Amino acid sequence: QVQLVESGGGLVQPGGSLRLSCVASGGGTFSRYTMGWFRQATGKEREFVAAVRWSNSITKYADSVKGRFTISRDNGKNTVYLQMISLKPEDTAVYYCAADASVYRPIATSTNEYDYWGQGTQVTVSS
């Protein structure tokens, strides 16, 4: 069983930056999983933000965060990161890390295609 623990959330002013981290532990081969970040704002459905295949060269982003967010991973540390810049109030949400253990398919953007989830970390963008 894979456990995912997110950190790095907090309160930031519009235009500010944050870096989220997600550490994986337990069974499985982290380096082969596709790792994703999703977010869920109050009263809304959970939505895809970004994902990265085992190699940092293959990534995918939601249109709403392209050019502002960067996903990366360090397989030696079993950690995936989400660097967020130019944050907007509409980025306010609980951010979740997720792992897709299906190694051979393209990057998934649907929540039901991810096998493991973290508990989430709150990001609030407000002045």
Describe the structure.
The model has no long low-confidence stretch (mean pLDDT 94). Strands 2, 4, 5, 6, 9, 10 and 11 form a 7-stranded mixed beta sheet that branches. A hairpin with a 6-residue loop joins strand 5 and strand 6. The protein starts with a strand and ends with a strand. By secondary structure, it is an all-beta fold. The protein is 0% helix and 48% strand. The radius of gyration is 14 Å and the shape is globular. It is built from no helices and 11 strands.
Largest sheet: 7 strands, mixed
Sheet-strand content, in percent, reads over 45%
Describe the oligomeric state of these chains in a short phrase. single chain
* Alpha plus pi helix count: 0
Structural class: mainly beta
Helix content: under 10%
What's the Cα radius of gyration?
Answer: 14 Å
What is the H/E order? Answer: EEEEEEEEEEE
Instruction: Indicate the overall shape.
Output: globular
Residue stretches low in confidence (pLDDT < 50, at least 5 long) are none
Report, as a whole number of angstroms, the end-to-end distance. 40 Å
